[in-house]
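Sample entry (389 residues):
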Amino acid sequence: MQTKSGSDYSLRQMVFYFLRLGYAGFGGPVALVGYMHRDLVERRKWITEEEYKEGLALAQLAPGPLAAQLGIYLGYVHHGFLGATLCGLAFVVPSFIMVVLIGMAYNEYGGLPWMQAIFYGVGAAVIGIIALSSYKLTIKSVSKLNLGEVKAKWVLWSFFLIAAGTTVATRHESVLLLVVAGVLYMLIKAPPRYTGKAAASVALAGIGFCQFEWSTLGRIALFFTEAGTFVFGSGLAIVPFLHGGVVSQYQWLTEKEFLDAVAVAMITPGPVVITVGFIGYLVAGFPGATVAALATFLPCYLITVLLAPYFKAIANHKSIKAFVDGITAAVIGSLVGAVVVIAMGSITDLATALIAIASMLALIYVKKLQEPYIILAAALIGLLLKSSW
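Predicted structure, serialized as tokens:
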């Protein structure tokens, strides 16, 4: 197919690109969207700069995992629904297979001393990585930490602090709080002309959050659909929502098992959100992994392909931008709160505290250092420390 940028490529070539990115793309959502720009816009010229920017804007405005949404959109650009579907699957499936295999090994050997030693170090490193990521998300999406910008964005900072405090106090992320933050900021910054209709739409969005006595797979499907539908931001933004449901609400996993699940997402390529497959496997085996992954990524896919044809008009709507800004501030605040909650249960001694701090400092001061290398180093440190005790 001839693109606007003048380069020929087939759907098969695009699918194989996302397949390779899915099994070899490390570094988290920011790195993955960077690889897409480098490879598809700069080097191969399959996608124009304008098309890439439109896809990135849609991925940032809509709920769901950032990198997966951008991949789905770029598949849609020249190959429609089939391109979006195949590129999305190619991107997600390799890492899904990896986390299921790791889940099998975790179930089989998780009680052995060497496996416990590995995750002793890895869990502490993950705390450091998430803490630094939450800081970067805060200064990028709320404002920088200087007095002038904090004053200018005091409403967003209020949402941020309220969400962080609520998450720490309740050990659970509140979807209602996120929606309220979005609606309030929209009404303050850019009230829509038809506020009555908008309010009715938001009220209808809350239907379906009632508790039902379903089977485990049914509860998994409902919970992970909520996660995929109402979480904005990068892959790590889903952590507080998952923690609140998986650990606190349903008690499917312990604090340690949840932190191990986040660690698995860090050491595997592809989207960070694929940790849902690992969690689903621990809860209900392969059917649980499949249902959790489908429920998380299907809303992201549907939102992307449904909005793609009309996105230019939507992207310039001030009310929608304000709504997303308000939700994003609350989501990041919840992420910070979740870091505090998880750290309280995971930083158990001086060694784990030092590993967490060292992980943050390494990412700050060692340029181009990627998270999987830190995770590997932490695993080795854990083995050395535990074997000497």
